[in-house]
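STRUCTURE:
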């Protein structure tokens, strides 16, 4: 089981999956501890070009195939809210997940 905070472009994840399989892993299940990043971030993260974001143009199955993982699972937005339950959902920024750039 490989756990990462996000998949942005997919290149790093593919390299890590390949390394694990070359080291003898029979299967690699990748779990991502955030929802899929489908929109550019205008608030400080280096994701300015949406077409570079793999989840903006590919399904989860296509991303799984691209990185050559056996399984791929993203945390849902609802799951993220439950994971940080001490923070009100309205106080969280989901812009890179849902494209809503409104600021409270």
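SEQUENCE:
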């Amino acid at each position: 089981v490989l756990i990462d905070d996000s998949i942005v472009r997919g290149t790093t994840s593919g390299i890590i999956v390949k390394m694990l399989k070359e080291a003898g892993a029979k299967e690699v299940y990748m779990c991502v501890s955030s929802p899929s990043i489908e929109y550019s971030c205008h608030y400080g993260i280096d994701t300015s070009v949406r077409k570079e974001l793999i989840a903006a143009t590919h399904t989860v199955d296509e991303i799984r195939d691209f990185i050559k993982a056996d399984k791929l699972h993203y945390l849902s937005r609802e799951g993220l809210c439950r994971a940080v339950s001490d923070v009100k959902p309205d106080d969280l920024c989901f812009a890179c997940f849902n494209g809503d750039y409104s600021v409270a």
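REMARK: Residues 21 and 27 are 7 Å apart (CA to CA).
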